[in-house]
Structures are given as C-alpha cells and as structure tokens.
Design brief:
single chain, 5-stranded mixed β-sheet, 24 strands
Length: 794
C-alpha cells in the first residue's frame, strides 16, 4: 500500500513538473515576428524618414519607453486594475460574463492588456479554448516581464485602423508628430482606437470616435489624472481625417542602411543616425531652391553630403531631391553612391602625391603648351596656354594641360595605385584603361569616396601632433552615419610611420586649394571678415554631365553634385557655376572655425627659386625660403637658370670661339624651352629673352633654339573635308628663340615655304606618314614625323 502511494506521489510530482515546464516554456522567446518599418532618426531623436514594412503595414519597432499620457489613457480605458492583477482580472471577467449573459450577446470581453498582447501575438480565432490558452500565457508573460515591458509590447503592436499598427506609427500617420508631443485629446483619441479599429478610426465613423474619446476624457477627469477643465478643452480638439504621409527628410540614407544592414551587423530596423536634424532640413530646403532654378535648364538632380571631420561622422545626407511623384526626374537614385566622372576633383590628390613623393615643390613650374600624347590632346577650359605655370597656380585655376604633364611625369600607374590605397571603390579596370585621362575625369568615382578621402586628409592634418609623428590609418575610415562610437583605445598601437600623404603635402595642397576664386566674389572674398577660410575644388565632366564642388576646413567636408541622374549633359552645367554656389551656401549654414594649424615640426624650410619654384641652384639669383614637405629634398635643382656668356657690351651671346673669355660678361639667365617661352613671354612681360648670338658665333648644333608647337613628333592628325568636298588644311606651328630669324620648311624632303617672325604654315598633305624638316638661317635643323589620317580607312 505504501509503495502504491509513493508511486502516486511520484507520478503527481512528475506531472506537476511537466506542467511547470510546459508553463515556463509556453511563451515563445520572441512574441512578435511581424516585420517592422525601417525608421531613421536624427542625432536628437527626431524622425527623419521611415519605410513601410514588408507586409504593407506601418509598424514601428518597439520603442524604449511608453509615453506617460498613453499609459494612463490606455489603462483607464482598457484595464483599470492593470497594475494590480497578475495578467488575469477575475473581477473584470465576472463582470463581462454577467453583461454578456444578460444581453445574450458579447458586449464586454474582460480581457486584460496582458491578454490582449497575447492575442495580438497569436492572431487566432477567439474560441473558449483559445481564451483559456491566452489566460495561461498571460500569467506566463507577467511572470517574466515588467508591467512597463507589457505596455511597450501593446503600444508597438496594437491595431490603429487601416494599415497602421502601433502607437508610434499611428501618432505620425494621424497627427504628423511623435507620441511624446501629443495632447491629452490626441492621446485619448489613439487610446480608444485599438478597441475596435475596423469599425472606428480616423476617416470612418467620426461621431462614434468622438464619443469614445470624450467618454475617456471624462473618465480621466473622474480618476483625477487630469482636471475637468483640461478634459473639456480637449473635447474641443478636432479628430484627424485622412492619414498623413510620414516625413521623408533623408530617404536615400534610409535606403542605404537597408542595403548595408547585413555588413553593418545591425539587426534592428530603427536607426539612430549621426545626422543633425536642423541642418538636414535646411539643406533639403536649400537644394530644393537651387533645383527649382536649375530645372529651367533641364538640370533635374542635385545632391550634397556634409561630414564632421573631427568626429568622422555624417552630418547631412541629401542623396537627391526627393520627388517620387515625378518618376521622370529619377529622384530615387542616390547620387552620393552613384559612380560618376569626377572632372577635376582628383587634381589636388595628384598635387599632394607629387609633393609627398618628392617630384615637385608647391610652386614648381609646370609646362602649359599644346600637348598631344599618343593621340590624346587635352585642352584647357579657356583654350589658352600660359607656357609655364606654378603647380599651385595650375591647381587653383584648374587648368588641364599642366596636370596631364604632371601625371605623365608621375606615371598614371603610380597614381592609380594611390587612388586604390585611398579606397576609391569604382576603379574596377586596369590602370592602362584610364591612362592619362585619369586626372581629367576619365574614371568614375562616388561622392562618398571623394568626400571620405578629403575628410581623411583633413583628419590627418588635424592629428599631426597626436601620434608622436606617426600616422593613424583610421583617419581614412568610412564616415559613420549610425550613432555608434568606434573603439579608439588601440589607435596608438596601430599607428604607422608613413601614410598615403604626409602632413606637409596635405598642408601645401589645402593652401593651394584655398586660392581658388569664389563664384560671384571676383577674388576679393578674403577682405570680408565673415568669409570662412576653405580649401575647395570644382569639377566638370566631359560633355557637361556632372558638376562638382568639394570644400573643407578643419571641422567640415562638404561635397556637392549637380546634374542629371540619367547622364544627360546640359550647357552651362559646370562645377563653378552650378555646384560651387551651393557649396558656399551650405558652409554659411555651418559654424565658422579656424584654419588648419601649420604643422611646423612636419615641414622643412627650403631655399626655392622664386621664378621657377624649383630648389634653388647656384644660378638662381632671386631666392626665397619656403615651408615644404621633407620629401622636397628629393626634387632636382632649378633647370631653367643657366649661366650665359655675353660680349663686353652685353648685347650678344658669344662663345670662346669668337670672344676672348677675359672680354666676356657671365650672367645667370632664366631660360625656358622654346615652346614654353613662346607662350610664357606673352603673359609675363618681365620675361627676358636671350640675346642673339654674335654674328659668326652661333651655337650651331645645340638643338635648343627651335621647337614644334603643333604637331608634336609622331602625332596623328585628322583633317576634315571642306564644304565643297576638298581636303582641308592643317596649320603647322613652330617657335624659334630668335624672333627675327627665317625658317625653311620641308615636307618629305621637298621645300614648301619660308616663314619669319610668326612661324605658322597651312598645308594639306595627302593621307599617310610624312617627315617634316625645319632649317633656320644658321643651319639648325629640326626633324620629326606626323601622320595624316584617311577618313575612309580610319
């Protein structure tokens, strides 16, 4: 008998244990698995953008807290003993049973808020069995969750009519603002909606909705939550009508996060971004105004990106003018992520690269003459030539030929590798595919990569004293747009001896970029105390398809793009006219700051030739001291200052073959090659040409007196046909150091003509390869070849 009782007790214990385990494990680890809307918030918590959930519902993620007004309204309306019962209200259930029995229909449910949370999560038919299961699960939910957690689950998942789920979505859809900003009347309106959302919601059965709201307000007054005066005033508030559209202040950044969510390891759909709410709205309005103006010229799209240099974060992200109602404008395209031709915006990177690697000094003279390299003929925007121009001046004027000459010296393969190190993600073809056109927009870049690179340079220069002379590779990290601080504790251990650019090269590059003339200010902007010091650069792609402007100071980087998302070019679409004004208007919205500190311990004083910008040689008479990168020591001595020998009067050049050395004057002279001199002396009136040789004392055989300007050696030339069908002519152009000398022209060994002073000749050679021979009066010869292309064959 005892054994039998023990078995019964054991069986009973096992059953109880099983029931306990079933009870404890009955609640899923995640009650609600419905997809939620993507929600983007500014750094201050304000809503910037939201996207509807995958199932077509407006359902925001569970909020961190429930507004106190909603908690008081919903408890008063749905479950007045919510804070006292364990999930089941026996009194409420008894009352409901009596009312339903008397009415012979269901007039009251008796469900607690906890039971309603369970019901919302299960979405099953309301049978007696299901009701019992809800009661058990409600007890289990109360066991593991606080009352506040249960309220949050209810507020996030209760139906509010139509396709609106959850308090936060309902607040934005019906009132156009967050629930924290709602009045008592507005909150009471929302509190009564989940009771019968299919029958009563804004836009449907308004009279019933108003009555339910007013009854709740009276109840709150009776409970002492609000006074009767507040209740009466709240009753006068209108109820919302048609649902409102949610804010779309940063839709392109929201879409970017959706596409990058997996790589960012961010599981939630609510993003607390680094964006400045006020700045984002200001830029939206600013770009909209410019877009309205540019649309008159069929320029439909504009984008802007603002980065915080010191924090390495995104302050504003306007990927395009957002006009989804007009599909032709393609405003859904995020131009910050789009690969486009950068125009001239990479030129400062080449300038800094050559400074960093010891190829040039900041003001080194660069040739600016007609150039043809393997069939490639770059042209300056103004179609003119300076002959020779300081590198920093070539950058500030955004000339095209000098940077091509610089890249030819630096090698496009080396520059391509530099851009890859900087993280330009769109260089997906070999360096040979781009060639020298790489510096004039022959590749594609994204605004994101361009702004990130300039931000990295600014961060490096800001940190020149922080790492004991070393460089932090994290300075070039991706900008952060989600509020999550990077762990910087080990940065000191990760520093490097070298970087892509050294501090001195960046400092010189930014100073050169500062010298650009600002639009509409005719170079006088420095005289206005309100003007900010900025390093900036514009760019215009081939065919006027893209207009760029990028600007920076120690605090901010701003990048602007203007154009058409479909790639259509428009006359007048240039960086200086379309993008630069936007750039400077954006900087007016930002706090003014100081300029970069001079990294004196990262710079070296060097004696530089004032005329040539090269390291001063023994024949450089006018020398100045300049702060340059230590790599400047590797540059060559000035090649343009030479010692010349003149006769006793200083009128003629002589040699020891015709003048006794004791009778000579020896002078240092600034001498440019003939082609450079040809254009340089036109724009530089103080340039002194070399005196001619004394008669009978020529420097025959030096081959330094005559040069072809066009065509260059081995050039290929296409000569178009005239209107009458005859072959057109090509104009040959040469220069000679002696302006009064005669040049005799020969093509394929046959004499053609003689020129004096201006050595230009219009000829019409037959298709094929030709040899051009020039002979001056002194017997100096210049021989080179060119090819006339045949239209039918080529």
């Amino acid at each position: 008998m005892l054994l039998k009782e023990q078995k019964i007790i054991l069986f009973t214990d096992v059953c109880c244990l099983v029931l306990l385990l079933v009870f404890l494990l009955s609640l899923p680890s995640k009650l609600f698995r419905s997809p939620s809307s993507y929600v983007l918030e500014a750094s201050n918590g304000e809503l910037l953008s939201a996207a509807i959930a995958r199932d077509g519902q407006w359902r925001f993620p569970v909020a961190d807290s429930v507004p106190e007004k909603f908690a008081q309204c919903i408890v008063a309306f749905e479950d007045k003993r919510f804070y006292q019962h364990p999930g089941i209200d026996i009194l409420a259930m008894g009352r409901a049973m009596r009312q339903n029995f008397k009415a012979r229909t269901v007039v009251s449910g008796g469900s607690t808020l906890t039971m309603q949370v369970i019901r919302l999560s299960r979405r099953e038919s309301r049978t007696i069995g299901q009701k019992l299961i809800e009661m058990v699960l409600a007890l289990r939910l109360e066991l593991g969750h606080s009352k506040n957690d249960i309220l949050k689950l209810y507020a996030a998942n209760a139906p509010f009519g139509s396709n609106v789920v959850g308090l936060e979505a309902a607040s934005w859809r019906y009132f156009g603002r967050g629930p924290e900003a709602l009045s008592w009347g507005e909150m009471a309106t929302l509190a009564v909606l989940p009771n019968s959302p299919a029958l009563v919601h804004p836009g449907k059965n308004s009279a019933r909705l108003i009555k339910k709201r007013n009854d709740l307000l009276d109840k709150l007054a009776v409970l002492g939550t609000i006074d009767q005066a507040t209740a009466n005033l709240s009753k006068l508030e209108p109820i919302p009508g048609k649902p409102q559209a949610l804010p779309q202040y940063a839709p392109h950044l929201l879409n970017r996060f959706k596409s990058e969510q997996a790589s960012l390891k961010n599981k939630g759909t609510r993003i607390s971004s680094t964006l400045d709410y006020d700045l984002q709205l200001k830029l939206n309005a600013l770009l909209k105004r410019y877009n309205n103006r540019y649309r008159a010229n069929d320029i439909n799209n504009i984008a802007a990106l603002v980065l915080d240099v010191k924090k390495g974060t995104v302050l504003s992200y306007v990927g395009n003018i957002y006009q989804p109602e007009n599909k032709e404008l393609e405003s859904h395209v995020d131009m910050i992520r789009a690969a486009r031709s950068p125009g001239s915006t990479l030129k400062p990177l080449l300038y800094a690269s050559m400074l960093n690697d010891g190829f040039i000094l900041p003001r080194t003279l660069i040739p600016d003459v007609p150039t043809q390299i393997g069939g490639y003929s770059p042209q300056n925007y103004d179609l003119g030539y300076d002959g020779a121009i300081p590198a920093d001046r070539a950058l500030s004027r955004s000339l095209n030929i000098p940077p091509v000459k610089m890249l030819q010296t630096y090698k496009y393969q080396r520059f391509y590798d530099k851009l890859k190190k900087l993280g330009f993600s769109t260089l997906n073809r070999p360096a040979d595919h781009y060639g020298l056109s790489l510096i004039l927009g022959g590749s594609e870049v994204t605004m994101w990569d361009l702004a990130r690179t300039y931000m990295g340079m600014a961060r490096t220069l800001n940190h020149f004293n922080d790492y004991k002379g070393r460089y932090n590779p994290h300075d070039y990290d991706e900008p952060l747009y989600i509020n999550a601080r990077r762990d910087t504790r080990y940065d000191g251990d990760e520093t490097q001896v070298n970087s892509v650019f050294d501090h001195g090269s960046i400092w010189n590059a930014f100073n050169a970029m500062e010298e650009l003339m600002r639009p509409g200010e005719e170079g006088l902007w420095e005289q206005f105390s309100s003007s900010q010091r900025l390093a900036w650069k514009t760019g215009t792609s081939f065919g006027f398809r893209d207009a760029w402007a990028v600007g920076l100071n120690p605090d901010y980087v701003v990048c602007v793009w203007v154009g058409n998302a479909d790639g259509e070019g428009r006359p007048g679409l240039t960086g200086i006219d379309a993008a630069a004004p936007v750039l400077f208007d954006i900087f007016k919205q930002l706090p003014a700051g100081k300029w970069f500190r001079t990294p004196k311990n990262k710079l070296k004083k060097m004696r530089v030739c004032r005329q040539s910008g090269y390291k001063a040689g023994e024949y450089c008479g006018d020398v100045l001291e300049e702060l340059v990168s230590p790599a400047g020591e590797k540059t060559v001595l000035c090649p343009y200052h030479k010692l010349v020998h003149l006769d006793r009067t200083g009128t003629y050049r002589v040699t020891d073959a015709c003048e006794a050395p004791a009778e000579m004057q020896h002078r240092a002279w600034f001498i440019l090659p003939p082609a450079m001199e040809y254009y340089y002396k036109i724009k530089n009136s103080d340039y002194k040409v070399l005196p001619p040789f004394k008669p009978g004392c020529g420097d025959v055989g030096s081959n330094y007196v005559m040069e072809m300007i066009y065509p260059k050696n081995n050039a290929s030339i296409y000569v178009p046909l005239e209107l009458d069908g005859s072959r057109g002519k090509v104009v040959l152009n040469a220069t000679h150091r002696d302006a009064d000398i005669k040049i005799y022209w020969h093509i394929d060994g046959a004499y053609v003509a003689t020129t004096k002073n201006y050595h230009q000749l219009a000829v019409s050679p037959a298709p094929g390869k030709h040899t051009l021979t020039l002979v001056d009066e002194n017997g100096e010869r210049l021989v080179q070849t060119f090819t006339i292309l045949d239209k039918e064959k080529n």
